[in-house]
């Protein structure tokens, strides 16, 4: 407030000073004009595009350019996303197919519990895989084929990892182990009806020392459905890896099937009957930023292996661009207060998150140590954090209560106290305080806006000039002289 | 505030002016009376029905009529809804029946994963459908029958879509394809124990080129259960379409069963033993609005195919009518403040939703591109939006965290950062700001009501007249002269 | 505020009046004393038990009695609840047993989809039930037995409901039906290895006319586990009813198993080896209210059939008693403000719920009509309301979005608009307004308490007396004269 | 406020007093200096570490030590947690293995419904267990072995609990029972292909009197996977107990498998081929507090049976240590207000929880009694509380509505009223009041901070001294004289 008076004093002094020295008056009036010019010029500089249009009739080219850029980036992202969606779907469906073809008695959704517990079952599962692999093209309804390397099919490899040596007698609580891991591999060529004994005569699993068995083979396929979208089909190499995992030696061997995909352009192709094919790498115009284009080309031709890094850059970039759009909303007064509130409350929210974060962390550590053995969700520090964060934000609590194993009364009571206090503390106190912080900030900003206090030296300087944008005084032709004079007099 | 003083000045001037010019006094007093008359008349006009009743004893016919209209519309809607509920249930149960009868090894709830992966399985499934179709009436416990067309059963048709020509060698990364799609159809008449080879001698599936196989047939049924509700039974034509979808050529052929329903009045019927039948199209009285009636009749006779459009109109209409009822609550002062708050806060909320929506959109785009390949819920832009919107409003977060596939560490970390920041930002900052906006609006409106500031010219004019509704001055017999005089003097 | 001044005027007048008329002074002073007495007496009357103890040393007998009563009622309720819990568990386990024994291929949790679709399956299921019933005691691991009536086993009855007459030709869209329902019953006595043809030679199901088949039989059992809790075992009569429901004639016959339970005291029993048996009907002490006792005795002896009505009375009663306890918390100032806020905000919250309820209702109706055919949760008006209410309060939204069937694009878009607007409106605006209402009420009450404005005539009268409870002036021996005088002077 | 004026009076008096008595002036000035010294010294004492550093350049050793301590405790906890995680995983996987090996037709996740209902099934299950136990090492893929006791395998024991005597005739509603429980045991040695008749010739189950059958045996195993983490493998004794529970005599015998684990150091071992083995009990340095170390050693050597007690102490301890860290955040002014708000609001929140708790309790009791028989979640008082608490905090409500069994209309309506009112009351009123309490506290504290009112005598005394920490006056060398003088003059 006192600052404001100072500023008007300063202004008054310009005017009251003038009549004092009559001969300096002309010079002074010229100075005053110059100051006024400067003020108006600066004020114009800080106008938003709408106001600039009103002030001088300048078309908001920059704004339009910005919007066009955002549109282009978004369209590109969406087109890339849509094409990517199809690739992902094809990969997923092939994975499902391989599970159904190569895993014995596999049921959809049962991968979590797909494991074997008996020695004969392990042999049966391996034999089943070899058999299915052997007459794949009589079975599959897709267009899968073996990989060929110089006219010869590349074989399926069966590899067994085991400790080099080891005699384990749990009955006596004694063991002798050589912790070096050895690997034994066999190659199996596609064959119509193999039995394990025939194909791998010397093959035996040393269950007590065994760490894992891995079956690896490559299948090739072509994604034909892109033909209907007027894109060229791609050729896929699926490397299927089936792992029998016995690292825990707990009597449970978990079986896992993964497929790594390698996408290439097909070597030789001929498509007829479709109206027009876009080469996929056209789209749109030439003024793309260089990095964007390269990324896009790379991804489109699907030769880039570091797909994840790219997508993170692309995604985060687009996100930031869009968040940047909010700036333009600040041009409108009613929007401005909301955005200002969010921005002003941000540091306080972050500060408070730090405080609450420490309490949160302490609950995480405590829960992990005490409840870890009794609840799936408290098994690792990471899942504890996710579970607690979800609980605050409205996750189902009852299952968390219910699935707590009730072996020990002490732990059971602890778990109840732990959950009730955590939820009460965070939902009733900490979430409420967030609301309070935001409300407080909003009130502060609203009062600031209503009192209209200038908050910086520049604002004080400009506050003297009250000309509205459409008053006409900003028009270049009229002011030209003024600015010219302003420049000359300097 | 200054406006208010003006208005009282205006009023004072009427009274202070009068004694000044004595000869104009009589005329002036008459004028004053006229103004007072007008004031009272306008005030009466803006009274709510209760006050009007107190002022002149006028019964609130309009209000009663409104309430009756709402009651009628709601009753009609409910009766239509209840009758519709039965139709939907019948359709649903028939769909379940067809799935159990025609899909081999079908298990309830398993439609998501109902697919085949082996060539022989495809043939088996088709043969099973033909067989079940062949002796349907010995199997079904419902009253299904084949459609007859001129005394002859309409046949089941088996159609195969495939690329006209195509040689695909994934092993060599080469292919040659003619993208024209050809369709090959066979008709099968109901037959007791068919084998595929017998019924369709030349039938062969070209798996590599095949896009889909479709089996289509029509079954007729009568919904007898309406008899017990004293309605006439309807005759249903179910067009059952079983699709083997191989468009992806991924090795997985998804099988889908749909039934399109066509509901007709039965041609010839005789019902006895039931007390009384309503023809379903009576109901109630004649002053129905024309569109409403037509719609209702159309839907009741079930000949309207565009059922969805109708239901959307009907539903939205009723919704708006009911929301209109809120207006009447504004008659009571305590309710009024709540409604006013909602209405006044609305533009600000919408404005803020715009701002938040941009941040939201940016998160959607980013999540779609980066997490799409790793999480079911981020597969399409639409599901991303639904997933994030649900997360804000209290959806289970833990499964979203958990189901993120952990193939790439980078993406895994990104997903954590993404979800933690999104939830924190939206729940702790943005939802809190909504509360702040509402609170602020409420305070503003409460202060306005307490200070009683008139907000429009009309209110200022009326604010002079302080007569209460039940003061008697509004009674028509007393005021008649006044108003008459008022009209004459004009 | 003006009222307050009035009250002090009134008070001043007593004192200023006195010196005016000297001869009336003595009388007046006596009057003043009387008024003071009355004031103190009334003030004492409104004191809370703690203050009364401080004022006159009176022990808070009433409060103690109240607390004892609450304790007794709660203990009784808990003991009844615990005993009831065991009965419910026994009933539930028997129901599971009957499902496993009598329903062919029954799997736990699959009752929703337990249905048959083929004619032979219906016969098979009935035959299976008869067979299992025939050699029940060789199968069951519980102590189930057939009911005997005069030395003869009561038979199992098979009843078929069907329309008296009916010829239905869906193929021609014609039907002729006599809507009278006839019932045909057969009795089957337990028999070792029956085949349906043997046992029920003339039994045939008229699928087209059939409404339902019902198999009913009675099994008796004794709940021995109460022996270990030193209670007498009860004898149970389970009436098992298996219903094949074909009312829809949709081709799907739903099978349902219910058991009605009748609990009696066993007729003849002898228990040894257990230390001491409480007869279960001891209770506790004699001052129980009459209704309570009768209820309890009735329920304990388990002869009361209207168990539900009782439990609702008992439960609601105990709830109200406990809520009444809150009154005592109002004795403490800090608690009082919270309770007062809740009480004061209540009418406004209810008012607002009315307004919001109308919008809510309009959404319910609209959703029911439009989305009913496309989503399970929108099938009936009741489930729509439950679903929407749950959505507001943090239910999983994503499944609601996801399970919307995507047949019609129009409905799909409508469903999105519907859900997004509903959730936004209710969570962002209406829930926020609740918070505002409560906050506003709290502020009002806090200011009232701080300004200490008396709000009623009585409070104004009492506000003059500022004696603290422990000041001693309330002691009976000292005041006795005063009060006596007070009574005499009247 | 009046206190503040007093304090300034006190201060003024020092200065105004001085010129009054000229000869006492020197003495007085010295006194003033002493007071000033003391003030500064105390003020320094209450400074936070940062300010102390600025004031005198003192390094914040204590703070650093604290942080180091916290780091050590957390690191230890994390290392212990990680090692514990592996143990828990090994136990869990073995439990899964035992279930798959010994329970007939066991399916993952189906333990809830794993039960038998037929007499022959009970015998079959027992025979299956004996058979699997007999040739365990030909089956298992883990390194399980029988326990040996003096060269002889310890046998599996089969124990049957039953009432000593009992004749139960549910058909007549009569029974005669001797409530003494007898136990009959058989020992079975591992045998290749036993049939129950052979192995246990006299074995028979008295189903009507039987309470339970228990099969107990011990298996030994070694957790080899720790070898890869450079830790010594541990030897495990699993005591497997399979219980057939018939206590309810409801016709359903629930089967349960538990394994108690005993972890020992292996007796004799030899590991080669791994680079370096940490003995697991090293880690870090010697200044550990004694209790902590002992606990850690005990747990690390895994001989401590009371693992749960330890983990609760460890977990809670670490939690408290971390929460203590928040104190240090109070050093920063912006953080301080948040922490102060939480602390100041705490008593009010607790008070309010008491009030709300009573309403909550009344709902719990009522729901338990009335809805207990009709809903799983309302079966016990504990689950009712958990269910309602979860509902308030955003649990899925729809399933709770939906799973309410609809047998009785009265109870159905009650359940709806119960749930709607409970949720409305708690979410709309009580949660909102929490927010109000926090907001109110925040406002109070903010105003207090802004008005800067000193709140204690000490603060008043210190408030006179306005020297900033980095003003230099606190430097020890400068003040030394002052403090010395201060001490001397006393």
UniProtKB/TrEMBL annotation, chains A, B, C, D:
- For this protein, the parts annotated as crossing the membrane are 311-329, 349-371, 417-438
Q: Which keywords annotate this record?
A: Cell membrane, Disulfide bond, Endosome, Ion channel, Ion transport, Membrane, Transmembrane, Transmembrane helix, Transport
Q: Name one GO molecular function term.
A: NAADP-sensitive calcium-release channel activity
> Does the keyword field hold Transmembrane?
yes
User: What is the first-listed, main subcellular location in coarse terms?
Assistant: membrane
Show which residues constitute the signal peptide.
Answer: none
So what does this thing catalyse?
Ca(2+)(in) = Ca(2+)(out)
Q: Which CDD domains does its entry note?
A: ELD_TRPML3
Q: Which domain of life is it from?
A: Eukaryota
Protein's UniProt name: Polycystin cation channel PKD1/PKD2 domain-containing protein
């Amino acid at each position: 407030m006192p600052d404001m008076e100072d500023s008007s004093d300063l202004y008054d002094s310009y005017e009251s000073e003038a009549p004092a020295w009559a001969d300096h008056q002309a010079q002074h009036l010229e100075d005053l004009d110059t100051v006024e010019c400067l003020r108006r010029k600066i004020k114009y500089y800080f106008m938003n595009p709408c106001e600039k249009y009103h002030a001088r009739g300048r078309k908001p080219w920059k704004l339009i350019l910005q919007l066009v850029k955002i549109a282009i980036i978004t369209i590109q992202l969406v087109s890339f996303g849509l094409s990517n969606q199809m690739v992902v779907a094809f990969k997923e469906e092939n994975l499902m197919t391989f599970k159904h073809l190569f895993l014995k008695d596999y049921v959809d959704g049962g991968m979590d519990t797909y494991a074997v517990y008996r020695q004969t079952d392990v042999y049966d599962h391996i034999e089943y895989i070899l058999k299915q692999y052997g007459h794949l093209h009589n079975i599959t309804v897709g267009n899968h084929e073996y990989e060929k390397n110089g006219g010869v099919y590349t074989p399926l490899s069966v590899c067994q990892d085991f400790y080099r040596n080891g005699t384990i007698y749990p009955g006596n609580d004694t063991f002798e182990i050589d912790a070096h891991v050895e690997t034994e591999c066999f190659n199996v060529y596609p064959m119509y009806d193999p039995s394990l004994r025939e194909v791998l005569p010397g093959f035996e699993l040393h269950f007590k020392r065994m760490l894992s068995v891995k079956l690896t083979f490559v299948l090739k396929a072509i994604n034909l459905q892109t033909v209907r979208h007027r894109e060229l089909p791609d050729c896929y190499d699926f490397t299927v890896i089936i792992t029998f995992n016995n690292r825990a030696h707990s009597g449970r061997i978990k079986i896992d099937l993964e497929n790594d995909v390698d996408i290439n352009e097909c070597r030789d192709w001929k498509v007829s009957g479709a109206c027009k094919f876009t080469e996929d790498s056209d789209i749109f115009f030439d003024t793309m930023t260089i990095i964007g284009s390269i990324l896009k080309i790379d991804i489109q031709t699907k030769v880039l292996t570091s797909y994840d890094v790219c997508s993170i850059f692309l995604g985060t970039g687009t996100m930031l661009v869009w968040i940047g759009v909010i700036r333009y909303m600040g041009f409108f007064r009613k929007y401005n207060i909301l955005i200002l509130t969010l921005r002003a409350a941000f540091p306080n929210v972050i500060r408070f998150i730090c405080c609450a974060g420490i309490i949160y962390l302490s609950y995480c550590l405590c829960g992990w140590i005490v409840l870890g053995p009794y609840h799936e969700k408290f098994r690792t520090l990471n899942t504890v954090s996710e579970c607690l964060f979800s609980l605050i934000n409205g996750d189902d609590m009852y299952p968390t209560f219910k699935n707590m194993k009730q072996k020990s009364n002490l732990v059971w009571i602890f778990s109840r106290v732990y959950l009730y206090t955590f939820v009460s503390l965070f939902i009733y106190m900490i979430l409420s305080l967030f609301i309070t912080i935001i409300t407080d900030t909003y009130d502060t900003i609203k009062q600031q806006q209503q009192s209209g206090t200038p908050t910086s030296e520049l604002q004080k300087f400009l506050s003297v000039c009250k000309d509205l944008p459409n008053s006409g005084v900003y028009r270049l032709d009229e002011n030209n002289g003024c600015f010219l004079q302003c420049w000359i007099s300097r």
